[in-house]
Amino acid sequence: MTTRVALAGARGKMGQQIDSILADMKGFEVVARLGRSSSLSEMDGADLVVDVTHPDVSGSIVEHAAKNGTQVLIGTSGWSSQRISELGGKLPEDAGVLIIPNFSLGSVLGTTLATIAARFFSSIEIVESHRASKADSPSGTAVRTAELMAAARDGIGPVEAPHTEQRARGQEVAGIPIHSLRRRGVVARQETFLGGEGETLSIVHDTIDPSAYERGIRLSLDAVQTVRGIVVGLENVLDLGISRS
After folding, report:
1. What domain of life does the native source organism fall in (predicted)?
2. DSSP letter at 210?
3. Residue 130 appears among annotated catalytic residues
């Protein structure tokens, strides 16, 4: 059986990469490639919609697809926990949406390690760097990391983040300061800094080339077909060998 795919954002860098991967995978056929001037109706009739567009238009694409009974894979950044919660209230019960803030295996492992460490350190901050043309900040990966770390500290208390009223202290997400750099020559980099009594821990992940996303994209394309409800994060596609609450 062939899965018919509508690819929204097909002309972007990530869209072109996914298009190439789909052409190489058995059992998939791209039946629609949507750009800025495309109508949402162009995705009708597909079995799967892959959304790698812009935060401003991603919501309407996902809602249209899911309400028509189409499975959705979201690779667009900017899906915070609040936005995901709002989406959940608009979708039919049988909808299947898989949201992947970052397709890199190293990135999801870095976020997982940071989440584990968050319970043991009182001081936490994130610095993330991306290409100059990235539209949103903080990045979806940094937001996801902060939210997971804050959730891991439930019952422990908030992190120590002094003077966050000052703009130079970054943007707080779930009580954790995030500092966003946008510069030429960078694909993606995230550093999570944790500090405690007499010691510090840094967890760093560098994306050196977009090929880092390929394995995660392939795994997500296979996994999304059986998703029910809203599932967030590549860690829910992988077998990390650790228990998760």
Report:
1. Bacteria
2. G
3. yes
C-alpha to C-alpha distances, 167 to 31, 137, 164, 182, nearest whole angstrom: 46, 14, 7, 16
Q: Does 109 score more than 90 pLDDT?
A: yes
What is the 8-class DSSP label of residue 53?
S
**Mean pLDDT calculated for residue range 159-188:** 96
Give the HSE-up count for residue 109: Cα atoms under 13 Å, Cβ half-sphere: 13
Per-residue confidence band for 245, with pLDDT thresholds at 50, 70 and 90: very low
Domain spanning 105-209: CATH 3.30.300.30? no
Q: What is the pLDDT of residues 61-90, one digit of tens each?
A: 999 999 999 999 999 988 988 999 999 998
Instruction: Indicate the domain borders of the chain.
Output: 3-103+211-236, 105-209
Q: Retrieve residue 225's tokens.
A: 């077909």
Told to judge if 26 belongs to the known catalytic residues of this protein, a careful annotator would answer no
Closest CA to 172 of 108, 130, 126: 126
134, 163, 179, 205: the active-site residue: 134
Structure-token pair, residue 161: 């983040």
Adjacency order of strands within the sheet including 199-207: 171-173, 176-182, 123-130, 188-196, 199-207
Taken as a whole, the chain contains a residue count of 245
> CA 85, CA 48: separation in Å to the nearest integer?
22
Catalytic one of 64, 130, 179, 205: 130
Domain 3-103+211-236, classified CATH 3.30.930.10, yes or no: no
The helix (H) or strand (E) run that includes residue 84 is helix 81-88
Q: What is the pTM of this model?
A: 0.88
Mean pLDDT of the chain: 94
Closest CA to 239 of 221, 223, 224: 223
Which residue do the tokens 């949406």 mark? 97
